[in-house]
Amino acid sequence: MVFLYLFMGLVAGIFSGFLGLGGGVVIVPALVYILGFTQHQAQGTTLAMMIPPIGLLAALKYYSQGNVNVKVALFLCLGFFVGGFFGAKFVDKIPDEVLKKCFGFFLLFVSLKMIIGK
Q1: Burial of 96 (0-12, 13-18, 19+ CB in 10 A)
Q2: Contacts of 52 (CB under 8 A, 6+ apart)
């Protein structure tokens, strides 16, 4: 499972560096639909992953309510850190119009998945 968490963090980091997406746009749906987390657990764990840069107070609140998996958050954070570097490294080779379309289609896919369900 550790490899899966690292991989998910890496993918989220690449999307973040490549499309400017926040980790939650990638990680929350992945935790819910791939790992079976509740929405609250997914949001809490994602916030804990992002504690170094943001979200400390919100993550502490989720943690106090039992909605943070600290181990998963740490591995996601490591993968996200590395993935963000690679996403940012390669994004400058993509034309702006193509990047806009990638961003829009990704958000549309995620939103439809969350609205329609499993």
Answers
A1: exposed
A2: 77
Q: List the Cα angle 3/57/79 in 5-degree steps.
A: 15
Yes or no: say if 46 and 23 are a contact pair by the CB < 8 Å rule. yes
pTM (two decimals): 0.64
Measured CA to CA, the distance from residue 59 to residue 112 in angstroms comes to 27
How many domains does one find in the chain? 1
Q: Which of 69, 30, 32, 78 is nearest to 47 (CA)?
A: 69
CA distances from 18 to 1, 27, 92 (A): 25, 15, 8
Give pLDDT, residue 43.
Answer: 78
Structure token digits, residue 115: 């609205």
Flag residues of the chain having pLDDT under 50.
Answer: none
Domain limits for position 109: 2-116
Give the per-residue pLDDT at 27. 86
3-class DSSP state of 112: helix
